[in-house]
């Protein structure tokens, strides 16, 4: 025996404050993980392994994409996920929802929620929106491709296996009343689950009274309210959350430029994870 101290995955996860599933995904995607193996194939983390993971975890907590953080600490990452973008756009143009779903599920499994959302899903949605606007004859509101892509993204995120959560919800996610743009919330729910944070999703267009009832029943540590449009952003809803003693977080472009009276505002998925994850 060499006497070198090693740790199990569970011990490292507790030391860093991350889910074991996060350690597994970083090992699978970026090669960051245990290099020392015990007889029988059991892998143990050395102090060097732990220090590398500690540096990566700190970069990710500060808002860096996991793939960029892996490169920054000297790991090798898989091919850029935007290589899947042309395939996804082609499937969407063909209205092939099954093919879209397969591509998205593969990308999520290989790259994780944040990287795939930022570098594939958002660009694909923007491209489809721009294409359909340019193709619309007159005032025709044809959005069939956008609907196919949106459905496939939501379905893939719902199927994405979350990490082990806590015993009670710590984060409640909801759209403000009148807001139906839910995909960013779906991505955040999957990303939080990937990090082992328990989530409850209320979804689209939640009235203030319903939101208050959900807070009393679920007792979350924080509530994130999404507003895509300025017309739907409702500062009184944030005030209600503060009176209930929970931590409100405003998310989305609808809140931009508003006086939120000290309430945190996050503008991206990475920002939301830095605040809540």
Written description of the protein model:
- The protein has 277 residues and is an alpha/beta fold.
- The protein has helices at 9-16, 20-30, 47-61, 66-72, 85-93, 97-111, 113-135, 144-159, 183-194, 208-218, 235-243, 269-276, and strands at residues 6-7, 36-37, 43-46, 171-176, 199-206, 222-226, 247-251, 264-266.
- The two termini are 39 Å apart.
- The mean pLDDT is 84.
Helix percent band: 40-55%
N-to-C CA distance: 39 Å
Approximate strand percentage: 5-15%
Secondary-structure content class:
alpha/beta
Indicate the overall shape.
globular
How many beta strands in the DSSP annotation? 8
- Give, in spatial order, the strands making up the sheet with the most strands: 5-4-6-7-8
Which residues form runs of ≥5 with pLDDT under 50?
none
The value of Rg in angstroms is: 20 Å
Count of helical regions: 12
Mean pLDDT figure: 84
Main beta-sheet strand count, sense and barrel state? 5 strands, parallel
The succession of helices and strands, N to C, reads EHHEEHHHHHHEHEHEHEEH
Please outline what is shown here.
With 277 residues, the protein is of the alpha/beta class.
Using brief descriptors, characterize the structure shown.
5-stranded parallel beta sheet; alpha/beta
